[in-house]
Specification:
The chain is built from eleven helices and twelve strands. By secondary structure, it is α+β, with helices and mostly antiparallel strands.
């Protein structure tokens, strides 16, 4: 057998095990660009090399085959957290314009799932769904902090199992550490990483900075999640991670910056309008005025804040303060 055909057989085996709905002969033909007879031979070769194929029930009146043996599953142990990280990375690449790289990561996700037993896959996919709903990416671009992996693992475990987490927390305002018991709802990543959660002394959802946490302990005490809470909606209230009353923002970019600005995601709910004079207007609604200013500084004179007055004045004051601080001695 030629090397190329052997590679196709292995790839097909991975597909037939990684896709829960299996593959039809038409799927094989389209995927590998072969005739129906060759597709049948490839299917039979997978069964000969890796074990019996299962017929999957479907509503399209076509036969779907799936590889049900353990031949590809014992290569490595894969966790829900790892697959969730992979999906989050793909979403981040998509959001920043790297669609091809995102597709490559999703292809890797399919291959990794092919190594899992069907029972394990069903259980892990449930955990992945919980983690995906409980982790958001703040819309402000920029550097990301280094995160403690053990802390993240503890918080993710508490989120996935709806258990209270106890930890020591350093207050930014007082500089004192206190013991906190938090009902964790999700993680929000931006220029800093935060845990979104409630405590027994406040009914409001709060942001807790991960960098200020230490000695985490996932307790055996569970809590009932608020079914109305939506992390994505919560994150969209802000340009970054600061939660404050949203404002209607209107930015006008110079003609020379139109191409860059039109390909940039400032906020998931933004709208873009090309103006007759060659400029570009971007509109969105969000809180986090200071974080907006931090980002708008990077656009220099190519952007002008048209609304609101509060944002324009805050940006002017911030720039004046920077000039005073960094000006000649």
């Amino acid at each position: 057998m030629r090397y190329e055909r052997l590679k196709d057989i292995v790839t097909l085996a991975i597909r037939m095990q990684g896709l829960r709905a299996g593959m039809t002969l038409d799927d094989i033909r389209a995927e590998f660009g072969v005739s129906r007879r060759t597709a049948e031979r490839m299917r039979d070769a997978v069964e000969w090399a890796f074990g019996p194929l299962e017929l999957i029930e479907s509503g399209d009146n076509r036969r779907h085959w799936r590889l049900g043996s353990d031949a590809l599953r014992r290569l490595a142990r894969i966790s829900a957290t790892e697959l969730s990280d992979l999906a989050a990375a793909a979403d981040t690449l998509d959001a920043t314009g790297f669609g091809e790289r995102a597709s490559a990561l999703r292809e890797l996700d399919t291959r990794l799932r092919a190594t899992l037993h069907s029972d394990s896959l069903a259980r892990i996919e449930t955990d992945i769904e919980v983690l995906a709903q409980a982790e958001g990416l703040a819309t402000r671009p920029g550097p990301r902090p280094q995160l403690d992996r053990d802390l993240l693992d503890s918080l993710r475990e508490a989120i996935a199992t709806s258990r209270i987490v106890e930890l020591r927390y350093l207050s930014q305002s007082t500089g004192r550490r206190s013991r906190q018991r938090i009902e964790p709802y999700g993680l929000l990543y931006g220029n800093r990483a935060f845990l979104v959660g409630r405590t027994d002394w406040t009914g409001d959802m709060r942001l807790w900075r991960l960098a200020n946490m230490s000695e985490p302990c996932v307790t055996g005490e569970t809590f009932t999640r608020d079914p109305e809470f939506d992390l994505e909606a919560y994150a969209r209230r802000s340009f970054g991670t600061f939660q404050e009353e949203p404002v209607d923002v209107v930015l006008r970019f110079a003609a020379g910056a139109k191409r860059d600005a039109s390909g940039f995601l400032f906020h998931p709910g933004q709208s873009i309008e090309e103006n007759a004079d060659g400029t570009l207007t971007v509109r969105f609604t969000a809180g986090g005025v200071d974080e907006m200013c931090w980002h708008l500084v990077t656009w220099g004179e190519s952007v002008k804040v048209e609304e609101p007055d509060r944002l324009r004045q805050r940006l002017a004051d911030m720039c004046a303060a920077l000039v005073a601080h960094h000006g000649p001695q």
